[in-house]
Amino acid sequence: xxxxxxxxxxxxxxxxxxxxxxxxxxxxxxxxxxxxxxxxxxxxxxxxxxxxxxxxxxxxxxxxxxxxxxxxxxxxxxxxxxxxxxxxxxxxxxxxxxxxxxxxxxxxxxxxxxxxxxxxxxxxxxxxxxxxxxxxxxxxxxxxxxxxxxxxxxxxxxxxxxxxxxxxxxxxxxxxxxxxxxxxxxxxxxxxxxxxxxxxxxxxxxxxxxxxxxxxxxxxxxxxxxxxxxxxxxxxxxxxxxxxxxxxxxxxxxxxxxxxxxxxxxxxxxxxxxxxxxxxxxxxxxxxxxxxxxxxxxxxxxxxxxxxxxxxxxxxxxxxxxxxxxxxxxxxxxxxxxxxxxxxxxxxxxxxxxxxxxxxxxxxxxxxxxxxxxxxxxxxxxxxxxxxxxxxxxxxx
Length: 397
Ligand SMILES: Cc1cc2nc3c(=O)[nH]c(=O)nc-3n(C[C@H](O)[C@H](O)[C@H](O)COP(=O)(O)OP(=O)(O)OC[C@H]3O[C@@H](n4cnc5c(N)ncnc54)[C@H](O)[C@@H]3O)c2cc1C
Known about the structure:
Blueprint: E1 13-16, H1 20-32, E2 37-40, H2 49-52, E3 56-57, H3 65-79, H4 81-85, E4 91-93, E5 96-100, H5 105-119, E6 124-128, H6 132-135, E7 146-150, E8 154-156, H7 158-171, E9 175-177, E10 182-188, E11 191-197, E12 200-203, E13 206-209, H8 215-220, E14 229-239, H9 242-247, E15 254-257, E16 261-265, E17 271-275, H10 293-306, E18 314-325, E19 332-335, E20 341-345, H11 355-368, H12 383-386
Parallel strand pairs: 1-2, 1-13, 2-9, 5-15, 13-20
Antiparallel strand pairs: 3-8, 4-8, 5-7, 6-7, 10-11, 11-12, 14-17, 14-18, 15-16, 16-17, 19-20
Helix pairs in contact: 1-7, 1-11, 3-11
The site of flavin-adenine dinucleotide has 41 residues, from helix 1, helix 2, strand 14 and strand 18.
């Protein structure tokens, strides 16, 4: 196994960032190509957004079929992660439900997703209002008319997966260097020649920028402008009473809640509630990681409105994490700037579930410039040339 704290003097491909995306790219490049791969992480594997991820895996994406395809492909990969990579990951199946009022935008999103999941033979069920009491006895759903359940959705753990990918890449020949920060790049004749770090330089032909909410700052050094805005997202984990756990041993379904929140069950019996696209811009190096008392109250009250029996739940944990948002909430997966420079950024709060497909796509892009998984052109940076909002403003995935 070639996991080393030492930075090599030369490699074929340097990946910057050891989150779930960089680690997945390292795994696919190592297993699908014969190129020499070095991943450089400034801190530790999973130190960025990945370590804070709710790690929900769902396939319902409204009318965005490209993401449904990638999510389903990724989910099959996650299901076989342990047996294929020999790395255990936390994993729990839990349906993800979209509740909607007839005639609303949510209804259109729910129905579009239902159609696409059905077309792809992905288990999906529509429940009418009169079934709610039986299906979702813990929820107060008076205001909704119907629900679309992505029946085989799941959740996992960001750190488990990123570490598993990194270790598996290392076992198969990649060099994984942690505690080393990339500080700059050298370019000759418009091609990448080396990467500068605080431990020295590594010469390489290709570099993949996968540094989460830090990527746009690194890209600026290569005159690549990425329209990515980091936002702070707040997470609270409630501790239900024994009575609640006995009554609802499977916890709550994963669901978006009106007002920009979502909830899911937590490993060990907790119930998580978090903000989604809070709009609270932040600096990934200096944000308040501990939600305050007002946040506790806001999130607890919001959840209790839909799950009244959590009104007297205790607090198990709280933290904040950072999303890297593009204007359209679509990823940027592209070759841009000098030859040999690739970018995987702007995951806009939905990168975890797609990480295996992104790793495979980026490996394809770096090695052949195209992919047969999905049309990688959809994720090109140039979509922002003709329209500053790319595919359209802030689609709520
Ligand atoms: C609270 C929260 C909940 C989420 N929930 C979900 C969910 O339920 N489902 C889902 O699909 N997605 C979810 N996401 C989104 C998902 O977690 C992210 O899209 C994904 O983790 C992004 O991974 P990444 O590797 O791009 O970035 P990161 O995990 O941030 O990794 C980037 C890495 O680069 C390193 N780095 C930065 N600069 C340098 C440098 N100069 N040199 C070397 N290394 C550097 C950092 O230390 C970091 O480890 C959530 C995110 C948050 C914050």
